[in-house]
Amino acid sequence: MELVSLEPGEGQSIAFSESIEDDVRVKPNDGTLTIAAGSESTTYGLGTISYERDGTHLAYQGGGLWESTDDGTLLHSAPNVDVITDENQVTNLQVHVTNLQSTERRGQDFTVRSAGTNTSTDSLPEELPPGKMEITIQSSYYDAWAAYFAEQKDIEVGDDGGDVGTVSIDHTNERMQLVIDVPYEFEIDAGITSPPSGANIEINNNVDMEAYNSATPDEDVDDLEIRFADDVVINHNTQIDADIIIDGELTLDQSNAEINGDIYCVGESADCLTINSGAHYGEMHTTDIELTPLSSTLEIDRQQERITSTENDNENTEAIDEDGRLTGNTITTPGEYYLAEISSDDTLKVDLEDGGEVDILVDVDIVFDEEVTLDSENGHQVNLYMTGDSLTVRNDVNIHENSDKDATNFWILSRPGSDISFESGGTTFVGVVYAGNADVEPPARVTFNNNVEFYGGLVASVESVDQNIDFYYDAALIEESSGGGAKRTVTDTTFLQVTVTDILVDGD
């Protein structure tokens, strides 16, 4: 019985022989489906049309045909709830709810008629926010609902769950719940995105900022954009070849301070530039762009739930000992890894012969005193999720076999409020550092100190850029969005479509 296919006003008569009519029941209030996303939640009634005789119990509910037996419930035709995935990420959730409108009835012929179908999410967003989205079903057929979802790709029953979702079962209350991980899209569409910190930003002495594209290294790139949400002072011998978006005051304060690009002042006035010394070559504009990025807390918390012990999800643990410490050996197998820390004596090496993804949860601080070598020729992705308070870079990161300075394959996600420093010594870093914060979270603070080359993208509140700093934005990042570092197209969004069909059930 495909009730959702009925056109508005169209009816379908259902007649039963006298021998079985007393075994047929319509229960409009039997079962509910609840969808929760972000801070919103909506509950829909399901209802059932059931037949029960001689131990056989069949029921229509939620678009599915179910059979109840002594050993549980079975699914004969699928319900109208679809989880659509692509590359281990949810792209669409389609829920077609059949709302039976009737009084409870038994033992007579009846007509089902569509009162109309509307596409509505009520208070639910059509584009789901990152995080966890829940579908909870309370029903006599809860275990068959659970089995149906568990058959979907990358969805599993149990605490560990699958890459896309986890099913849990509450036998006492005849309830199942599907928790879906909605992808995180950390877009790096500016070289620097510096959220508000309330402090002035100092850019001092021999600093250059420009763009390149690791995907097309032979082409010139002139579309660098830098975003500051605080006052910025630019001092001696600094050249910035970029458009600047600023929610604050921008001051060129000393000789040879130069900006080659347009300046966009957040607000109604384009008067946000003061030139005491130096030069600006470009135009002044106003903009209403939002400079607050997505918080990194969401993804770090999710990964901390997934990677919670030293029992690393891989086939080769020679690179990490039983205490969660690096041994100096190379990580050669994709998977999820747990590290108690990366300290000054540790060496991180990754070389995946066949490519793949490595997710590493670092449960305290990170110090890169030794070179970090990632064999970029094999097309792998390495993501570090840091739960500690500080990231210190004192040696080269991701330059091994990486002549094009591909920054898309290495991401570090750091918590809001953390201290991030790139320290002197001829350090070169290639990758992304993401430490976005929500309005209620403290900003991460970044300092660049003497003789540092940075290739990639940065999302964190800049405190100071001091002495002989070269910052190069990898424009290839604008074509790659990150769900915890995994390469995905910028257009990837998880959409929710809820269609409600009201079905009137009348006695003949």
Automatic annotation (TrEMBL):
Organism encoding this protein: Natronosalvus rutilus
Domain spans labelled DUF7305: 304-478
UniProt xrefs under InterPro entries: DUF7289 (IPR055713), DUF7305 (IPR055729)
Name the record gives this protein: DUF7305 domain-containing protein
